[in-house]
Amino acid sequence: MNERDDLYQTREAHSADFRFDDAVARVFPDMIKRSVPGYAETVAMSGIIAGRYARDNTRLYDLGCSLGAVTLAMRHGVRARGCQVIGVDNSASMLERAAHYIALDDHSLAGDPVAVELLQADICSLTLDNASVTALNYVLQFIVLDQRLELLTRIAEATIPGGALILSEKISFEVAEQPLQDALHWDFKRANGYSEMEIARKRTAIEDYLIPEREEVHRQRLLAAGFSQVIRWYQCFNFVSFLAIR
Ligand SMILES: C[S@@+](CC[C@H](N)C(=O)[O-])C[C@H]1O[C@@H](n2cnc3c(N)ncnc32)[C@H](O)[C@@H]1O
Ligand SMILES: O=C(O)C(=O)C[C@]1(C(=O)O)C=C[C@@H](O)C=C1
């Protein structure tokens, strides 16, 4: 199942034509590991954070769950009782594969594991409720700009007092810092075996589709959405993760 990402060795790229389709879902674990600096740590620490913030008889949401990496990290991190982890994605190709990974995990766990449910839905029109922890791991960056505050506000309103949002994103920087951050990111991709052509084609494909914003924009919008505290708990080059508390 873990195929190597060679999509842009053969695929031509056009602006904003990247989609989470079957071809991407097939190579996704390899693609995200080789493309996002700090991905493995972000997933693993989502489990630790879920352990601290999950409360009895609440929900944990993994919005834009792809193959369910964070869904499973949260399932394994939860110590509270009566919790349910809900993984949501609008890509059928992703969810089909996520279901396979959840089933493998079900079989490996003894006793009464934390319940996991997968849902195919658009997170921009999903009703959320009774959340103690929500993860938005590299997903907000794909939501059109004018829907981002509304989505975060719905998450904040659905979050119990003291509950948490884990928000991981590719970010942008002020003009003086941006070239260095880009260069380091592309060095990371080169070191992971992507060619100049693959890096350039992926860049074209996600341009105008993955829209990064500055740290300050994220912080202020999270506060405007209804969270009371925001910290940046992790950064690796141009990828960061925030923890926002309701
Ligand atoms: C970069 S991946 C997320 C990675 C995943 N959270 C992880 O940590 O492994 C982005 C995911 O968001 C999903 N997505 C994008 N827009 C969405 C929307 N409006 N509703 C639901 N899912 C969405 C995509 O289908 C894709 O699977
Ligand atoms: O910014 C890039 O160059 C990326 O490849 C990033 C990114 C992401 O952050 O989601 C884009 C699409 C894939 O899902 C994997 C990585």
UniProtKB/TrEMBL annotation:
Family matches, as InterPro entries: CmoA, Methyltransf_11, SAM-dependent_MTases_sf
Sequence ranges assigned to domain Methyltransferase type in this UniProt record: 62-167
Keywords annotated in UniProt: S-adenosyl-L-methionine, Transferase
Binding site for S-adenosyl-L-methionine: Y39, G64, C65, S66, D89, N90, D122, I123, N137, R203
EC number, UniProt record: 2.1.3.-
Catalytic activity line of the entry: prephenate + S-adenosyl-L-methionine = carboxy-S-adenosyl-L-methionine + 3-phenylpyruvate + H2O
Family per similarity comment: Belongs to the class I-like SAM-binding methyltransferase superfamily. Cx-SAM synthase family.
UniProt-listed NCBIfam families: carboxy-S-adenosyl-L-methionine synthase CmoA
Assembly and oligomerization: Homodimer.
Function: Catalyzes the conversion of S-adenosyl-L-methionine (SAM) to carboxy-S-adenosyl-L-methionine (Cx-SAM).
PANTHER family: CARBOXY-S-ADENOSYL-L-METHIONINE SYNTHASE, TRANS-ACONITATE 2-METHYLTRANSFERASE-RELATED
Name of the protein in question: Carboxy-S-adenosyl-L-methionine synthase
Protein source organism: Oceanobacter antarcticus
Gene (UniProt): cmoA
